[in-house]
């Protein structure tokens, strides 16, 4: 699903953001990416959804190698991904349903196919009743659910979430996390960056820990890594 | 309606002031261009008309034998620059003067006006140098008393035409550049205003072409609208000035369409540059 092999990334500033990062996530896994601020979590995710390219090493994603991936192929690849951010990144002048539909519109989908899909995912995240609300009329937790619905609407193989609960209170955090787990149970791989160590520990899921640009701990390294197996071992 | 077209047109509602500004600047650039084009067009037509009239007149000395002139006429007809030669006898000269200047009929007595040879030149042989060359050869006949041709006049018109063409090109290019910069920066503002949307579009897998399309349509529509306004302004100016200037002419439909197309092309090109720059910058 996703494989980093000795990946390093140095931004234009010249300071290396990550160095020698190697890990592998198989289909259906749920993994946390943790570490202090500036450790390189967002960089790992950006490399995963090809917002950035590795300075050295290789990122393999859904069978595509970063070494061979041309910019032209990036949009098609992203349609197989769902990306979720701390700041939701919803369009303020569009309703929840329109925000979700947006992800389908830009792929050139027809209006007839869009409507039922949007309803289905809004139902899945429990927001069908708020379909016509605009982001400012929704709570943080609800906004993040809309963002997750948008990430889900293209039936992604992999969800990349960069601190999706970073702006949420404890209750909403649990809700969003449970939603992601539920999605994962349906077969979708999830990689989630977070600061929330309590959440990480209580979940007992696979954890990749970064420090100063290096991967210092991987609770699932070397394992076949089905979610069940990981939970069993670590928990 | 197509999503790109809808988005492209939506910009007019999202940012009416900015859109109006773009249309206005394109309109004024093309208007200035149009005014200049009108001047050039009319100057050119005036030159063509004058060109048709470019002729050399050689006055024949009194008492020249008719055989001598008719031989000369045949000779002159053979000059490569010459389109036609006519002999105007004294009687014909008098007749013509009376017809053209009827009120002064009594002033003209038979024998007052000399006979002359009128030489009309071919198109392409009407430059000041060509006229002068033919005039010199004409003057070589010893029965030719005097030669008249609009030397100064012809030279001036030709110089004017050369200057007009050069100034036209320079101004046209400058205006095109200026309006491109203005459209480009207004589109860039529109792009920046939608930077968040563009970022999200990319994250959910929109291609650059898809992101670009509405902006190109927006630029095209603005360019064509600007062209229309410019055409209307030029037309109004033309009508206003037309009262004082005789025989001026306006652009034909083909030139008018070319102007609109130029507006559209300017708009599309400027948008493409502005969006392209943004897409490259944010990758
Ligand atoms: N676009 C960029 N240009 C230059 N340096 C960057 C850029 N993005 C990140 N960095 C640097 O790379 C390092 C890793 O940043 P990154 O955002 O990956 O950390 P993080 O683990 O996500 O931190 P946080 O928990 O605060 O989000 C930091 O030192 C950061 O300053
Ligand atoms: Mg981060």
Write the layout of secondary structure elements.
The complex is a heterodimer of chains A (235) and B (283).
Chain A: E1 2-10, E2 16-25, E3 30-34, H1 41-48, E4 56-61, E5 64-65, H2 74-78, E6 81-85, H3 96-105, H4 111-124, H5 140-152, E7 158-162, H6 170-185, E8 189-193, H7 197-203, E9 206-211, E10 214-218, H8 227-234
Parallel strand pairs in A: 3-8, 3-9, 6-7, 7-8
Antiparallel strand pairs in A: 1-2, 1-4, 4-5, 9-10
Chain B: H1 3-14, H2 16-53, E1 55-60, H3 66-77, E2 82-88, H4 90-100, E3 116-121, H5 128-139, E4 144-148, H6 151-193, H7 195-203, H8 208-242, H9 253-282
Helix pairs in contact in B: 1-2, 1-8, 2-6, 2-8, 6-9, 8-9
The complex binds adenosine-5'-triphosphate and magnesium ion.
Describe the structure.
- The complex is a heterodimer of chains A (235) and B (283).
- Chain A is α/β, with parallel strands linked by helices and 235 residues long.
- In chain A, the strands form two sheets. A six-stranded mixed sheet of chain A has the order 6-7-8-3-9-10, sandwiched between helices. Chain A has a four-stranded antiparallel sheet with strand order 2-1-4-5, with helices on one face.
- Chain A has helices at residues 41-48, 74-78, 96-105, 111-124, 140-152, 170-185, 197-203, 227-234, and strands at residues 2-10, 16-25, 30-34, 56-61, 64-65, 81-85, 158-162, 189-193, 206-211, 214-218.
- The model of chain A is unreliable at 224-235 (pLDDT under 50).
- Chain A is globular and about 45 Å long.
- Chain A contains eight helices and ten strands.
- Chain B is of the alpha+beta class and 283 residues long.
- Chain B folds into two domains: 2-49 and 158-281, no CATH class; 55-148, Alpha-Beta Plaits (2-Layer Sandwich).
- Chain B is 71% helix and 8% strand.
- Chain B is built from nine helices and four strands; from the N terminus they run ααβαβαβαβαααα.
- Chain B has a four-stranded antiparallel sheet.
- The radius of gyration of chain B is 30 Å and the shape is elongated.
- Chain B starts with a helix and ends with a helix.
- The mean pLDDT of chain B is 81.
- The interface between A and B is medium-sized, with 19 and 16 residues.
